[in-house]
Automatic annotation (TrEMBL):
It is a multi-pass membrane protein. Belongs to the peroxisomal membrane protein PXMP2/4 family. Keywords: Membrane, Transmembrane, Transmembrane helix. InterPro entries: Mpv17_PMP22. Its main location: membrane. It comes from Sphagnum troendelagicum. The lineage of its organism: Eukaryota, Viridiplantae, Streptophyta, Embryophyta, Bryophyta. This is Uncharacterized protein. It is found in: Membrane.
Amino acid sequence: MKGAWVWYRFRLQQQPIRTQMVTSGILWAIGDAIAQSVSRSIEQRLAMKENSTTTIVDENKCLERTFEHNTDWRRVATASSFGIGFVGPVGHFWYEALESVCINTFKLKPNSFRFITTKVMADTFLFGPVHLLAFFTYTGLASGKPWDEVKHDVKRDFLPSYMTEGLGWAIVQVANFRFVPVRHQLLYVNCFCLVDSAYLSWVKHQDNAPWKKYLTSLVSSSPNNTKN
């Protein structure tokens, strides 16, 4: 493990963008594969409970075949390419630029309360929405959907995703901006992206789930609707 860390730091120093791209691609691929595996396991167990004639042996055999035979590798490749093409390069420049702006432009003291708060707010309200919009748009187009359908899916998925993961990411980023050197901040984020990519992939493939509609309605309800 120590040798791998030394190698990573060396590659990061020599080729920072390429190293971030490769790391992001690997972790996003793993995250999507996990999302698929978890979703299938849940769906199969629910189906087996509803079918009283299914035996325990059949259930176990079915679950054993889940990951090996039913993984959508095109979807895994799409998630990986998003990590390579967007998360790696854009994330690298984002954290470097955020550090520079806070110190050189705003003249904030590193690790101070205002320094960390400014970074978290910028990451939550600037990079967060861009990241989500890019993810849902890219994965939709990469799956072969027409543009109108992609726009519909983005409108359906953006707010529920942003509302549910926003608080979690804010907590993650407080620790990131306080304790992690800027050159390693994207790696730190990518480790959590292992979970986040699984979550976003799961959200994207939940279609018109009731919980999505409920969360969207909390924001999209207009005063006129309230009066009525």
